[in-house]
Design goal:
heterodimer, A: 7 helices, 27% strand, B: alpha+beta, 2 domains, 15 helices, 11 strands, elongated
Chain lengths: 239, 393
Amino acid sequence: MSSADIELHDVCKVYRKGRIDIPVLDGLELSIAAGEFVVLMGPSGSGKSTLLHLIGGLDSPTAGSVRVGDAQLDQMSERQLTAWRSRHVGFIFQMYHLVPVLTAAQNVELPLLLFRMSASERKERVATALSIVGLADRTDHRPNQLSGGQEQRVAIARAIVTDPDVILADEPTGDLDAHTSEEILKLLNLLNSEFGKTIVLVTHDPRAAAHGQRILHLDKGALHRDEKRAPRPAAAAVS
Amino acid sequence: MTLTYVLMQNLKRNPLRTALTAIAFAFPMAVFVAAIAFVVAMVRLSQANAQELRLVVRHKATLTNYLPEGNRRKIEALDPDRTRLKAICGMRWFGGRVPDSKIALTNLAVDPDTFPIVYSDLAMTEDETALWHRERRAAVIGSLPASAYGWKVGDRVTLNSTVPPYLSLEFQIVCISPNPVRANFFFFRRDYLDESLVQINAPSGRVNTFWIKCTSVEAIRSLQQQIDAMFANSPDETKSEDENAFVAGFIQATGDIPALMQAMAIVVVFIVALIAGNAMMMSFRERVRELAVFKAIGFPSLRVFFIVITESLMLALFGAMLGVVPASVLLLIFPGQELAKLFGVPIINQLRLSWPAVVGALAIAAFVGLVAGFWPAWQALRLKTVDAIRHVA
């Protein structure tokens, strides 16, 4: 399983709305080691999601450099970023956003359609991903036949099926109850501890933050506090 | 799983919208196939008419005005050597119908001596021609009334005229012509009609048209000018035209149907494009976030563009097939003759399935699908993933 370290050096991001420039990140310096589970916290507008997008290659910095593994993202074109993203990044969103007309297995298979791969190999990868998230018995269920927690697990399976270096999660438990949220966070812990994935998690929830090894507190586009935490015990098998 | 499968599944996302959009394609395409089949029938008729080199002379004011039968000799005198004019046949409209029938026959009384020459395309045999000359009540009919009423050669049939003086006459069928272009005709001898008119003191010795079998296209042109010049400024001023122009006049009399069909086709295609475009935009708006996620997980913008536009194309072709297939099957199973009997409209007995029409309908549907899908696909291509993701997250 692959992993990557992340380096941001003097990163600035300014959005232009009409004639108004809106600075979101201001001279950010950040290093995340391969295999770390990092949590980004901060008030709304602090730049958490923007930072996540820069790391994931969804956006480019106005200034500064962003490196993830061997890839220098700030020097890549949009086309190159798209191709890189498909291989190296797994995204998990708050609202899961599964395709409602596809089954769980088909949703997980979607990213694999970008690669030259036999149908049997795709099937094997999908089965593995669904097994890791504990949904091996739900492969033929459509999203409307799954609970919120199960849908998010399918989304996680979709994020990991390409064996990405980095998993980026933007409020993955924002729409879930406490019990289900805990299950999801345990799953992320599993991916980190058992499979060594570098995970960057954006959250407002302190309970979610407690699962990270580091909590980065952002405010007004700058890093205010870098809080290291004791590593959690290996996560129990996901039910 | 393939992307094609994903596209097809997306069409099931909103089954009602997909069904309504497909139906919006189906009906116009079915009408298009039928309309082209009609046009092809008209073209076939026109080609058949052109081959026969017939010139039609009628009263200039209106077809319903009669011309004296004596004008035939004056016209014949224009070409005594018969180098241009083979034969001339006077015809009078009888408009007969079988009682309680809705089939409108092309029912005419004709000059018996020249009729077999002028209408040689009816392919009467020698025996049939001899019987035509011998039997006063002889009738030569097309295959449509024969099959509609189960008539055979030798049968005696009665028709009621739909024009004054509303005679009811009995006929004996001497020939059923195999010519499919003349399938709806019912010809009988004009001397028989005139005798009947005389018996009730109704005016006789008049015709609505003279049909002239010519030797060449040039002969048609020269005779046309001569005849109209001869009768100019007389009570029986004439208008002479070739057979196709004469037939076209009937169609134009009910309105400029070809132009009307063309205008309707353009309007329908435009409306279908609007409906399809609206449906595709609605679908795109519902899926902005989903498409943003597609881009986020690594689908290139161009591929997302093709996903959206291909969906529109597939929907258009699916809808077109929904209309084209039943229309085509109908035209294959029910030949024009059966439809003519069913609807009582003679011209559609020439209707046949036109494969170019089928291909054309699918091509038009594909074009409309591409046009309708282009704008939402373009929006999908230009979709700023980050901006859409912000709504997602």
